[in-house]
Each structure stands twice: as structure tokens, then as C-alpha cells.
Amino acid sequence: MDTIPILQLDDFLLISIQVEMHDRLALQLQDELTERVVKTKAKGVLIDISSVETVDSFMGRMLGNIALMTQLLGAETVVAGIRPAVAITIVELGLSLPNVRTALNVNSGMAMLRQLAGTSVGGNGHERQPE
Amino acid sequence: MKLPIINIQIRYEQDIVYVRQRARLIAEMLGFSRTDQIRISTAVSEIARNTYQYGGGGRAEFVVQGDNLPQIFAIFFRDQGPGIADAEKILQGNFSSRTGLKCGLVGARQLMDYFHLETGSGKGTSVFLGKTIPFDKGLITSRLILQLIDALEQSAKQEPLEEIRLQNQELMQALTELRKKQEDLARINTELEDTNRGVVALYHELDEKAAQLTQANNLRASFLSHMSHEFRTPLNSIVTLSAILLNKMDGDLTLEQEKQVNFIHKAADELSGMVSDLLDLAKIDAGKLTLERKEVSIVNLFSSLRGMFKPMLDGKTLGLFFAEPEGLPLLYTDEGKLAQILRNFISNALKFTEAGEIRVSARLSKSKRSVIFAVADTGIGIAEEDQSRIFDPYTQLDNAPKTAFRGTGLGLSICKKLGNLLGGTVSVKSSLGKGSTFYAFIPVRSPDSARTPLVPAENLNFTRPYPVLVIDPDQATHALYNEYLGHTDYYMMSARSIKAGREFLMQIKPLAIILDVLFPEEDSWSFLLELKTDPATRHIPVIIASMLPEQNRALSLDMEDYCSKPLSRQWLLNKLRTLRQRVPVKTILIVDDQEVDRYILKGLLADEKYRILETASGLEALQLAEARQPDVIFMDLIRSEICGLEVLHKLKENAATRHIPVIINTSKILDPAERQALNAKVVAILSKNTDSGAILIKNIQATLEKAMQALDKR
């Protein structure tokens, strides 16, 4: 069974989706992620979908749900690395991702998260490139 | 024209991913731009999910449509689900799904060039997605499609995950089938268990039924043996008493009275016969009848039948003939039951024959394995259609003249059953108005054991009641004595050696022994001494017939007489007569709780010079026996405060009464075991159930004489 690894980076959780996303895997990710947020008291979540080619309505909804849920748990979610073709498709599909912040790549995504986390930005001086 | 590429089943969630991957791959091969590839795979993903989630699974068919440019890459989805109820609304965009779940359809339409949806409640759903294939690759031909399919297969093989997916699917399918089979098995198992429970319950019921049946059978058996006693006792009283009246033992009857008593006698006789028939049939049915096989001489059988039916022919214009049986072997069978069959046949023939004759014959069958008895009459005959049922119980034919032939209708059915019991069959040949012939096929059968008794047990030979034992080595002497004693009241038992003589003496007490003292190998004198010292034989008179002049020695040994050979007939008969007549006044004790039976017995014994003591009580009987020392005791197997068997036991235990001969006179039907136990202790067993009073009187007198003979010699 595929699993998607969830990495901890300071106060943030980093997820990079490298496998073909199917529905059960998406739901599983959603469960694991929320648990990890609670456990690690993470301030932000970064989801890298640069390898994902298909974002359909289910996937879109899942991303939206994750963002909403982590917000409720006190963590902001940023989705980074959406491909141009995927972006086109998302728009044409009529998907809107109201709660989801997006960033061009992981770097800017992390920056966004740090900024959102406010006081803790650079607080402990452990900035790293996740890739 | 449609060029089919691939046809994929959507059954599991992973299939959605697979379908969308195939869609992207095919789109790529068909020359779609990267963006279009993602559009197509996204749209396919949407519809495939719908097919899986709402349609419960279905198929996705990938084809290339169109003979000319522009061609279309088309994907058809079909499912057999419940259909989409508000498809129109969804497509018009008016539909707002709170979950956003159904926006997939709209999105897919927007992503593709062509979209068509067919759905209806209960009809399933089919969706057509189409996108125009870019021209730059030129016309897609079927050859190109084949290449494409090849490439697809290659790519599938290169992906181990895909391989696993396919295997997985097969496995899942196999598992599903297995589960179904298991369910079937489980169901069958349950059914079997139910059936089993039913069978067990049935067995239980059967067991119960069997127990009930056994109980019912036991009840029936005890009922029968009880009835045989209770019914017969009063009937026998009536028969015997009326016989006494008719014998005018207590004075003459008026003519009218005699007629009336005769009717009473006849009616009681008839009733007694019916009761016997019923009991016989019941006993046969219950398997209670046991065979007592012994050697049976047909000549003797015929002669006793002849004697029995003789009185019944009086006043009839009817002849009863017994063909002299010739060259027939001895039968080894139950004489009583064979006689009963023939008796029934003959009395039947007598009933239905007004005039003419009845012929009884016997001959050997062709196979020589059985003897065929035939009773032919010239009576009214039996119609063909009735012949099959006359052997059934309670069958009486309508054409029988009403009043004359009453009966239970059991006679022939008893014959049939008895015949079967003896290992044979019975049958009938008849034509209406001309007469009937009844047959009994009885197997000859050799005796199972070689040992046959020299003198049949309980054989009270009425015509020659006085046995005379001749012990002599010389055959000529035996022949001579036999001639002497022919046609007299004596019958001779021949022993050619002292050893044979001893064997006879174990079984019977002769009136006299005629002994030749000159035995070559044995010492006759020591045998004589033995005879005279043994209390059992001491009283038997011994006549020495010898050529040796040993008279003095003989008489000194308390011999009855001595005679030098050859004896004359006159001398022998005279001698025997004096021995016979040596009957002094005797005391007889009658023990019977039935007053009427005591009365009958007393009546029968009244002519003789007997002193009669009587009692109904067993205890009193014991006292009387000891105090009065009767010469003979007649005893019923009474059921007073002390039972008959116990009385008998006590009599034989007491030294003062042990020697008194006891005669059992009972109406109880004794089984062979009881009979044997009694035989050891008593002189004779008489049945109160004997057919006629005349036979009863004869029986009693004969037995009494037998007992007296034993007494005389003391």
C-alpha cells in the first residue's frame, strides 16, 4: 500500500505527493495529517503537488478540506508547485479552492508559511531547503 | 467507423486511477498536447469516479471515431446503476451540491469537446466524452490503432504495479467466487444440519414407537395367555358337565331333557372350538407357537383321524375314506399341527358335503421332498373367484347354507398359517357344485438330531395302555410275544439286551417285565437284584422266562413268577390280567380351587373304587397328603394362598409325601419349559381343554391306571 510521507521541518509539516493519487490514499493522507498536526503542534503545512498531473474535483476538494481542517487545528496550509496544465484544468473544471493558499514552489511556500506563523519566523534560525 | 482501442472494467477504486492513466497515455499517443492530456485524464477521472461510486462499477471503452479528419478520441462509460435522477439540473449548472460531489459531470463537460449523457432512473447511466484529435498526425488508421494497442500492452508490462493490479483483480475475482462457494457450502451445511436434526428426531420417535409396540405386544401376549385360561375354564366345565349328564351317570334324563342337554353340549363345544381357533390364530400371528417335531407315521396319523371322525359320520349319508398310505417315509414334523390341518380340512369337507364321499389321501411329491395330503369331497364346491380368499381370516362365503355352517371363518386361515409354519403350503382345487380338494404340502425333512426318543413323551396310548417290557436276547422270542400280545390291551417294548431294558425303564414303568435270565454277556441275576433294590423299579413284577431250571432262585428273589420257555399265550395273558386287576381301594386327593372342576373329576372317578379327598387350598392339601397318605394326588395349578407349583415342590420335599404320584390336571396352557419342569416331578399332565368329555374320561382313567401301576408294585 502506498503511503505518503509527512516530514516535520521545525514547526511545519512538509508533504510531497510523488505517487499517483487515488481516492483512498487522499483520505488516508487527510487523516494522518490532521493527527500529526495535533501531535506536533505544527504551525503550518506545505503540500507539494509538483509531481501531480491530475487534479480532479475529488482531489481539489480534498486539498480544500485539508486546508480547512488544519486551520481549525491552528495551522495554515499552503499548496505549492501546481503545474500550468493542472492549473488550466482546475480552472476549466470549475474548481475553486477558497481556503487554500498557493505558492509557486516549495521555497516560496515555506516563506509564506513562516510569514504566516509570524513571531516564530527565523526565531530558531533553522531555515532549510526542503528539496 | 469506430476503432476500438481498449476496454477497461471499473470495479475497484484503484480502477479509477488506472482508467485515467490509460486515458492520458492514449491521449499522448494520439498526439494531444500536454494540457489536453491532463484535461482528458481529469475528465475521465471524474466520470470514472461517478461510474464507480454511483453506478456501482461499469466499463470504460476507448475508441477513435470517424473515417475522415477530424477524428475524435471518444470514451464511453456505461454502468447498470440506479441512474442519475436530476441529471438535467446538474448539467444546467443550477445544481448546487453542498458537498460539491456532483460537479464532476459539469467539469468533465467543460474539459471535453463532446459530451453526451444518457441516464434514467433504473436504467443505468452512459456517458460519452469526446475530444477532437489534433490533425498534425494525419488520419489514424486501424493499423495505427493496433500499434497503439501494442504499445499500451508494452507499457503495462513495464509497470510492475500494473501487473500486480491485474493479478490483484484476478485474485479478487477468484476470492469473490470462492466466497460465494463458501456461502453456498455454508447454506448447504445448514440445510444438512437441519435435515440431520430431523432425522435424529425421527429416529427418536421410531425408538419410542418401537418401545410402545413392544409393550403392546407384551400386553397382547399376556392377554392371550390369560384369556386362554379364563375363557376355556368355564367352557370346559359346561362341556364336561353336559357330557356327564348325557352319559347318564346321575340317572336317566327324559327324552326332552336329553335333547336340550345335547344342544347345550353342542353349542358349548362349538364355542370352545371358536375360542381355540381364535387363540391359535393369535398365537401363530404372535409367533408364539413352537413346533415340536418328531417322527410321524402317516399310517398312525390316518388311523387316529379315522377314529376321531367316526362318530361324526353317524346319521349322515356320507362316506369318509382314508386311502392306505403306501411307500411313504416317516415325516419329521409336528404331528399335532399336521393333524390340526387335516382335521380342519376334513371337518370343513363334512360341513359342506351333504352326500357322497370324502377321500383323504397322501402321496409323495415328484421331488420326493414333501408329502402331499389331499382331502377331496363331493360337496358344494367353491367358485373360482372365491378360491383365493378362502384362506384369509374371517372369510365365509355367501353361498354357504346359513345356519348349518356356523364358525369363525378362521379354520382355513389357521391351516394356511400352520402349513407355512411346518415349512409347507396349503392350496385348493374346486369347481362349483362338484366338490373341492384341499391340499397340504408338508416337507419330509429328516430329523435335525439323530436322537429320537424310544417312547414319545406323554404318549398315553389308549388302545394299548399296558406296556410290557420283554428283555430277551432271542429274536424269535420277541416275534412270538409280539404275536401273543397283538390285538390285546398290552403292547410290547422289545429290549434285546439288559442295557436296552434299562433305557426303557428310565422312561416308562411297564406293567410287567418278562426276562430271560440267560444273557450271554451280562449277568441277568445281578440285573434282577438291581431291579428289586431300586425303589423306582422294585414294584414292577418280573416274570422270568427261561430254559434254565432256576425257579427257586427266582422266587427267592421275589420274582412274580417263573416259567420255563416256551410260554403259552393263554398263560401269559392270564398272568397279565391278574396283575392288572390287582387294584385295591385307593385314596385319591383332588386339589382344585374350582368347585365345578372338582365336581367333574369326582363324577368321573365315581365308578371306580376310590376314596376321594378334596380341597381347594394348597396348604390343606399338604396337610391332607401327609396325614392321610393318599395313593394319588390330582392337582390343578391353583392360585390360592400358595400356588400349585409350590405345593408340588413341598410335596416332593417332604419325605412323608415324596412317593405319592401327582397328576397335574389344569386348563392352563403350558409352554414347553414349564412342561419340562413339571414332567420331572409328576406322573402325567392332563389338560382340562381336551375336546370332548369322553376323551377326558379316558385320559383320566388311563393316567390313573398308570399311576396305580406304579403304586401296585410297591
Automatic annotation (TrEMBL), chain A:
CDD domains: STAS_RsbR_RsbS_like
Limits of the STAS domain: 2-113
Xref: Pfam families: STAS
Tree of life domain: Bacteria
Protein known as: RsbT antagonist protein RsbS
Gene: rsbS
TrEMBL record, chain B:
Transmembrane domains' residue ranges: none
Keywords, in A-Z order: Coiled coil, Kinase, Phosphoprotein, Transferase, Two-component regulatory system
The keyword Transmembrane helix appears for this protein: no
4-aspartylphosphate carried by residues: D516, D636
Positions in coiled-coil regions: 161-198
Stored Pfam families: HATPase_c, HisKA, Response_reg
Domain Response regulatory: 467-580, 587-703
Reactions that this protein is recorded to catalyse: ATP + protein L-histidine = ADP + protein N-phospho-L-histidine
Domain named Histidine kinase: residues: 226-446
GO molecular function terms noted in the UniProt entry: phosphorelay sensor kinase activity
Keyword Ligase attributed: no
EC number(s) reported in the record: 2.7.13.3
Alphabetical list of SMART domains matching this protein: HATPase_c (SM00387), HisKA (SM00388), REC (SM00448)
Protein origin, superkingdom: Bacteria
Protein known as: histidine kinase
Native species: Candidatus Methylobacter favarea
